[in-house]
Amino acid sequence: MNHNKLELADIFRDHGHQLGLLSRNNSKVVSAILDCRTPVLGGHLYQCDGCGTQDKSYNSCRNRHCPKCQYSAKREWTLERIKDVLDVAYHHVVFTVPHELNELVITNKALLYSILFKASAKALKEVFRQKYSSADDSESKATKDGIAEFLAKAVVIGERQCPP
């Protein structure tokens, strides 16, 4: 490491051997991050016409997982998404599956994700009903529950995951 700031590539260089066997996609990502902005990817040499000072600028990997390459794009995307946030009260709730069930989930994704989404929606609706319902509740009451569910993290890293 020849700089003061710790980067993901430094961690991969120092501890990558502990990752074990990686999928082809994950291996490509790690290689891209390791090679990003190094002589491996080539670069440009800039020279000042006045004093002759030279400055090397190495090419980036442009991998979507690379923190060096995607920082600006991520920041821009985040600022755009902030404009889309509804002006309503909300709660972020996370439901997880125990690690011991990972193999079962991997082999039965559609079924188990469907069960997870149905069970989590039922649990949230029950909590909402108990907290906000009263004896005089009617369908015309303005307060309604709403649930937006997303599969936020894939069980298997490297495969494209889609909710059922």
> Strand order within the widest sheet?
1-2
How far is the N terminus from the C terminus?
A: 43 Å
Any idea how many domains? 2
- Roughly how much helix do the residues carry, as a percent range? 40-55%
Annotation, overall tally of beta strands: 2
Q: How can the largest sheet be summarized?
A: 2 strands, antiparallel
How confident overall, as mean pLDDT?
80
Helix/strand order:
HHEEHHH
Low-confidence blocks of residues? 153-164
> Oligomeric form of this entry?
single chain
Rg (C-alpha, Å): 24 Å
Q: What is the overall number of helices? A: 5
Content-based structural category: mainly alpha
Shape: elongated
Percentage beta strand:
5-15%
Folded structure, characterized:
The C terminus is likely disordered. The longest helix is centred in the C-terminal third of the chain and has 24 residues. It is built from five helices and two strands; from the N terminus they run ααββααα. It is mostly helical. Helix 1 crosses helix 2. A hairpin with a 6-residue loop joins strand 1 and strand 2. It has two domains: 75 residues, no CATH class; 79 residues, no CATH class. Strands 1-2 form a two-stranded antiparallel ribbon. It is 40% helix and 6% strand.
